Amino acid sequence: RLSTNVSNTRPRQSFMFACLQIKEQKIVFDELSNLKKNRRVYVQQPNSNIFFLADRGQTLASCKKELDNMKKDM
């Protein structure tokens, strides 16, 4: 009976983690949406502490696409 509870916990933890990721992505999208037009946007390279100047519109579009994909996968 204990093993049943443990197996039910993993999908729930995975779901909660996915919800947190979606929430974080929504915050990033809102922050980018509310930036003034003349503000600079930097994108961090994966697995690095290096940032590169990025186009605000392209960054916003890719953020929106990633958010939509996350919602679709739920």
Automatic annotation (TrEMBL):
Highest taxon, organism lineage: Eukaryota
InterPro entries: ASNSD1-SEP
Pfam families registered for this protein in UniProt: ASNSD1-SEP (PF21975)
Protein name per the record: Uncharacterized protein
Organism: Oncorhynchus kisutch
